[in-house]
Amino acid sequence: MTTSLGIEHAFSGFAVPDIDAALEFYGDILGLDIRPGGMGLLRLHLPGGAEIIIYPKPDHVPATYTILNLDVADIDVAVDELIARGVEFLRYDGFPQDEKGVSRGGDPQIAWFTDPGGNILSVLHSA
């Protein structure tokens, strides 16, 4: 579908300080489809069809908000697997989180972590 503006495709993007570290993290640790995108960029293809470009920024400052949410079938399986792969989960004041870092106080259940550039991501599961 083309919009009245002629938009045929849309995508998001975010910066990282180290493209090689991002390629390894998003591909090997998270198991997502990520490929070189030309001009030093990466193209992250998400389940469901969305696309994100990841670009290098030497003076990168990590986002202070969640840049990417990964909806999972079973949050405990996902968190356990990420912990086994070396991911450390964040703790936030005001959110009841269990020993793994999962907030189960409402819907969705959610756990936050960062990529190598310090950008915040989450795994979540809606009941």
UniProtKB/TrEMBL annotation:
Pfam families: Glyoxalase
Keyword Lyase: yes
Domain (VOC): residue spans on this chain: 6-126
PROSITE patterns in the record: VOC (PS51819)
InterPro entries, alphabetized: Glyas_Bleomycin-R_OHBP_Dase, Glyas_Fos-R_dOase_dom, VOC_core
Ranges that cross the membrane: none
Keywords: Dioxygenase, Lyase, Oxidoreductase
GO molecular function, one term: dioxygenase activity
Protein name in the entry: Catechol 2,3-dioxygenase-like lactoylglutathione lyase family enzyme
Taxonomic lineage of the native organism: Bacteria, Bacillati, Actinomycetota, Actinomycetes, Micrococcales
